[in-house]
Amino acid sequence: MICEICGKRRAIKTVVIEGAEVEICEVCLGNFEYKTPQGRPVKKREKRPERETEVVENLGEIVKQARESEGLSYAEFAKKVGIKEALLRRIEHGFIPDLGTVRKLERYLKKKLTYEIVIDEEEGPEKREEAYSLESISEIENDGS
Ligand SMILES: [Zn+2]
Question: How far, in Å, is the centroid of ligand 1 from the Cα of 21?
Fold first, then answer.
């Protein structure tokens, strides 16, 4: 791998600069450290990004359409899904229920109602002010990926 900064020398390390992985050579590594303005946040990747399950935004619409296409009342549909009628009404009006309820709806409708999002790790303000140092670079390297 060639250094992505100078494009000349062999890259020896991977550093994360503002969220992007950059292969960098020994010389540029030194220069970069020198050039980095003080207090400029340099994100380092400490762990794999976390994933979180999000519920589709139009859940209410989907549920309402499904119920109406089956010609069911709130009570009937709620019973089939295995949830309370009052909860079903709220969902159709835009309420996002807990994941357990969403899973019940998914099972009944045979339709995926959730999606995974990757949490962008925003580090705390204290951490962001950490100076860019050789120490933090080697930590990234040891983390591996
Ligand atoms: Zn270089």
Answer: 14
pLDDT at 90 over 50: yes
User: For residue 82, which of 61, 68, 97, 62 has the smallest C-alpha distance?
Assistant: 97
Domain boundaries of the chain, sorted by first residue: 11-47+122-143, 51-117
- Which residues lie below 8 Å from residue 117, measured CB to CB, with a gap of 6+? 51, 52, 53, 54
pTM over 0.70: no
User: From the CA of 37, how far away is ligand 1's center (Å)?
Assistant: 19
Q: Tell me the CA–centroid distance for residue 75 and ligand 1, in Å.
A: 67
CB atoms within 10 A of CB 69: 8
End-to-end CA distance of the chain: 16
Question: What is 51-117's CATH number?
Answer: 1.10.260.40
